[in-house]
Amino acid sequence: MREFYDGITFRTNVVAKKASLGLQHALERFEVTPEQWSVLNVVDQKAPISQRHVADFAEKDAPTVNRIIDVLVRKNLMTKMVDEKDRRITLLSLSIEGKQKVQLIRNVVEETCAHFYQGISDVELATYLDILARIENNLE
């Protein structure tokens, strides 16, 4: 049984690394890392959103998200504004340039993922996602 588990763990790590590298290569032309993309994607879907909530949705720690946000603001892809209801909260949104770039990136990410999942049915992917969720739950 140990060899079976070792094989699953090894193959999972190999696939995760290859997928991450494939996504990184797809994003290079946009000068955006996969980590930056995860933050841009959350902000695109949830804006205006606080930095704390971005960290929660992106499943990253707050200092990492803060560094990523600073980079994205410097790249003029994201804007910050103070929440009118609670001045202690900074809300994030995409800039006009950020919205345009996110749409281009989203198209490339979808093409890249379609390549990753080629030949695998939606039912198989749903089963895979369910299994991953159960494994993740066991890890927590």
Automatic annotation (TrEMBL):
<feature type="domain" description="HTH marR-type">
    <location>
        <begin position="1"/>
        <end position="137"/>
    </location>
</feature>
<dbReference type="InterPro" id="IPR036388">
    <property type="entry name" value="WH-like_DNA-bd_sf"/>
</dbReference>
<dbReference type="GO" id="GO:0003700">
    <property type="term" value="F:DNA-binding transcription factor activity"/>
</dbReference>
<protein>
    <recommendedName>
        <fullName>HTH marR-type domain-containing protein</fullName>
    </recommendedName>
</protein>
<dbReference type="InterPro" id="IPR039422">
    <property type="entry name" value="MarR/SlyA-like"/>
</dbReference>
<keyword id="KW-0238">DNA-binding</keyword>
<dbReference type="InterPro" id="IPR000835">
    <property type="entry name" value="HTH_MarR-typ"/>
</dbReference>
<dbReference type="GO" id="GO:0003677">
    <property type="term" value="F:DNA binding"/>
</dbReference>
<dbReference type="InterPro" id="IPR036390">
    <property type="entry name" value="WH_DNA-bd_sf"/>
</dbReference>
<dbReference type="GO" id="GO:0006950">
    <property type="term" value="P:response to stress"/>
</dbReference>
<dbReference type="Pfam" id="PF01047">
    <property type="entry name" value="MarR"/>
</dbReference>
